[in-house]
Write a structure and sequence with these properties.
Largest sheet of chain B: 5 strands, parallel
Strand content of chain A: 5-15%
Number of helices of chain A: 20
Oligomer: heterodimer
Largest sheet of chain A: 5 strands, parallel
Structural class of chain B: alpha/beta
Distance between the termini of chain A: 46 Å
Order of helices and strands of chain A: HHEEHEHHEHEHEEHHHEHEHEHHHHHHHH
Distance between the termini of chain B: 10 Å
Low-confidence stretches of chain A: 549-565
Helix content of chain A: 40-55%
Shape of chain A: globular
Structural class of chain A: alpha/beta
Helix content of chain B: 40-55%
Mean pLDDT of chain A: 94
Shape of chain B: globular
Radius of gyration of chain A: 24 Å
Strand content of chain B: 15-25%
Number of strands of chain A: 10
Mean pLDDT of chain B: 93
Order of helices and strands of chain B: EHEHEHEHEH
Chain lengths: 565, 134
């Protein structure tokens, strides 16, 4: 075929090309058009309510963004504490309105940076926090009583103890502190961490200890944020994401109530982290359905009485896994679509990914664009002027109903097995996660699922445009390691050991909250790894989470895994 | 010359537990008729080299997310040399900037697969690494 004929054929095909999607990405069927009869059973008072009215389908606050815009909250953390503090200041200068720290892998596993297995992982995916000294530098110059500060870790909340110690050193009172600790320790395994790092029973106990402590001493602190984002990144669909989150929330609430805590003291401080992926309306429907289900669950199943207890509040995080390595500037468009979905869904807080996600951590340029995306939506688009602007759409209300049905169905399947911990232990969750990941890949390989620039509209020469790459400096790592050495050498070793012994004793003693002993240990400059070791020892585990048994760790025979591929 | 089905050892070295990518590759290589051993996460160059030797593999495949590839790959290659795995090809995949690909290959990496690489391409490249029947 000649060049002219090829061009001619191409344009003719493109001109006549129809939409080929007949369902949402998770497989819910879509009609060509929706009409009043599709929502004939909808009762406004029962199923929707105004924003701020039970069951909150339309939003958790009456005036939504006219009361307060969602928090523009970019995840941040790398190198040494100094680098992270510097990046936080940069983000604040660029207009960020709330803070969110990511920690590196050794920290998220509960080991110090000088653990032999931690080499080459220090400071890469987040900031390493080995002691109160590191945390003090991260928070330097920040008004912790006036700004919201998220600690994004699904490990045992040792980092909250260290944060409190550092904040109090700077003169803040713990009751003034605002922010969130994820504290979703049972879900640690869904973030890729082995079960042996935190077994479920220890996870539940430490989570409830943290919940109890926050209820007693930290009225402005969100004590639990169930992490749907990492669940979704594994490959599961929108309904699975919410169902898994609710099944996890049930575990924590039931355990807290069993301990005698009042659900109305806890629920107002429970939040969620949700992914936003590319199927625009499915994501919005997912979140509207989530609000309705949560409001009813808290009221009917848990007997919550306060209006604040019934609100599903969430931090949105646009999906890293939806972004492409090829033609990376296209990711700006993807993130914009996902951020718009988050705002139209009524998020309370939002992280937007950077376009260079597939080559490394965000450069300053890239994270600025991510922030500008939120700002352009907030200030130029008019979307935030009206609460739940899409409410009443025949399509969206119908899809929200369908999503509610599907979420409820999956929740029922999990409940039938005895709950989320049971479903995690017996391999059901892992099988589902694998199957979904394979399904998505099959659809991508076959072209059934088009990813622009990846399997369609590719560029034959040079897979990607030149974009900068964010590098972690080895000098930073040196600075950090040197500080860790100083802490070990210069602290009062006796006090630190005594405080660690107290942590160990607290864990080993029933009905003893571990948070205060952990804070005391942090104040005595015990390291995160030492505190974690004391917790593990108190629970009857080897102090080192990375210690091996005779079985090759990670192999199909490792008791830390439920199943292989 | 006849080639036996390639024998591939896949692993994640270091503390990163993000294994969705490598699990998908493992599945696709298996469906393509290769013999695949997925060692799992939390491996070290030692455990990988030992397994590669014991299983007599053609290819070792490592997956990286956090930017640690330039630190870990030299150590893996050194261990492979020390254990006499001269015939074994090392391939890597994951979040690897384009400017690191040539340096990795210069170190001795046979192939680098970035996200978005079609599975058929990975399969074809690995088939080339399989050794002939002796």
């Amino acid at each position: 075929m000649s060049l002219a004929e090829d061009v001619s054929r191409k344009i003719a095909e493109a001109y006549l090309e129809p939409n080929r999607q007949y369902g949402t990405w998770s497989g819910l069927p879509l009609k060509e058009v929706y009409r009043p009869e599709d929502v004939a059973d909808l009762d406004y008072g029962r199923d929707l309510g105004d924003p701020g009215q039970f069951p909150h389908t339309r939003g958790v606050y009456a005036n939504m963004y006219r009361g307060r815009l969602w928090s523009r909250r970019e995840l941040c953390g790398y190198g040494a504490a100094e680098d992270t503090n510097q990046r936080l200041r940069y983000l604040i200068e660029q207009g960020e309105s709330a803070l969110n720290i990511a920690f590196d892998l050794p920290t998220n596993i509960g080991v110090d940076s000088d653990h032999p297995n931690a080499e080459d992982d220090v400071g890469l995916c987040g900031v390493p926090i080995c002691s109160v000294d590191d945390m003090a530098i991260v928070i330097d110059g920040l008004p912790l009583d006036q700004v919201s500060f998220n600690l994004s870790t699904t490990h045992i909340p040792i980092l909250l103890a260290i944060y409190i110690a550092a904040a109090e050193q700077r003169g803040f009172r713990r009751a003034e502190l605002r922010g969130t600790i994820l504290n979703d320790v049972v879900a640690n395994v869904l973030c890729g961490y082995r079960r042996s790092f935190v077994p479920s029973d220890l996870a539940l106990r430490t989570s409830v200890d943290c919940i109890e402590f926050c209820v007693q001493e930290m009225p402005r602190w969100n004590l639990l944020s169930v992490d749907g984002y990492n669940i979704r990144e594994n490959g599961v669909n929108a309904a699975h994401e919410v169902a898994f989150c609710f099944a996890l929330a049930r575990e924590y609430l039931r355990a807290a109530v069993a301990r005698g805590l009042d659900v109305d003291g806890i629920a107002p401080r429970v939040t969620f982290t949700n992914s936003l992926m590319m199927d625009f309306f499915e994501e919005i429907a997912k979140l509207r359905a989530a609000r309705r289900i949560w409001a009813r669950m808290l009221k009917e199943e848990f007997g919550a009485k306060r209006p604040e207890s019934l609100r599903y509040k969430f931090h949105g995080h646009t999906a890293g896994v939806s972004l492409a390595r090829q033609q990376p500037l296209n990711n700006i468009v993807r993130v914009t679509i996902e951020a718009m979905a988050a705002v139209l869904s009524g998020c309370q807080s939002l992280h937007t990914c950077s376009y260079d996600e597939l080559v490394g951590l965000p450069t300053e340029e890239a994270v600025a664009v991510a922030l500008r995306t939120q700002q352009i939506i907030a200030y130029e688009s008019g979307i935030s002027a009206v609460a739940d602007p899409l409410g009443g759409s025949y399509f969206l209300e119908s899809l929200s109903n369908a999503m509610e049905k599907e979420i409820t169905r999956v929740l029922g399947e999990i409940e039938a097995q005895g709950g989320m911990i049971a479903a995690l232990s017996n391999g059901w969750i892992e099988r589902l996660v694998r199957e979904e990941a394979f399904r998505v890949q099959r659809e991508t390989e076959s072209g059934e699922r088009i990813i622009v620039g990846v399997n369609a509209f590719t560029k034959s020469s040079d897979a990607d445009e030149e974009i900068g790459v964010h590098r972690i400096s080895s000098t930073s790592i040196e600075t950090h390691m040197s500080r860790l050495r100083s802490v070990r050498e210069q602290r009062d070793g006796g006090s630190a050991q005594a405080a660690l012994a107290e942590v160990r004793r607290a864990v080993a003693t029933p009905n003893t909250n571990i948070m205060r002993p952990m804070i005391a240990a942090a104040q005595a400059r015990a390291t995160l790894g030492e505190i974690n070791g004391a917790i593990r020892a108190g629970h009857g585990l080897p102090p080192d989470p990375l210690s091996t048994s005779c079985v090759l760790p990670g192999s199909p025979y490792d008791p830390g895994r439920t199943s292989a591929c | 010359m006849l080639k036996r089905p390639p024998k591939v050892l896949l692993a994640k070295v270091g503390l990163d537990g993000h294994d969705r990518g490598i699990m998908v590759v493992s599945k696709w290589l298996t469906e393509a008729g290769m013999e695949v051993i997925y060692l799992g996460t939390n491996q070290t160059p030692d455990t990988v080299a030992s397994a590669a030797l014991a299983e007599d593999v053609d290819v070792i495949g490592l997956s990286f997310l956090g930017g640690e590839h330039l630190l870990r790959v030299p150590k893996m290659l050194r261990r492979m040399q020390e254990r006499g795995l001269h015939d074994v090809a090392l391939i890597v995949g994951g979040v690897i900037p384009r400017e690191d690909i040539a340096p990795l290959k210069a170190l001795g990496v046979a192939d680098v697969f970035v996200p978005g690489t079609p599975m058929v391409s990975i399969i074809a490249h690995i088939r080339e690494q399989a050794r002939p029947f002796s």
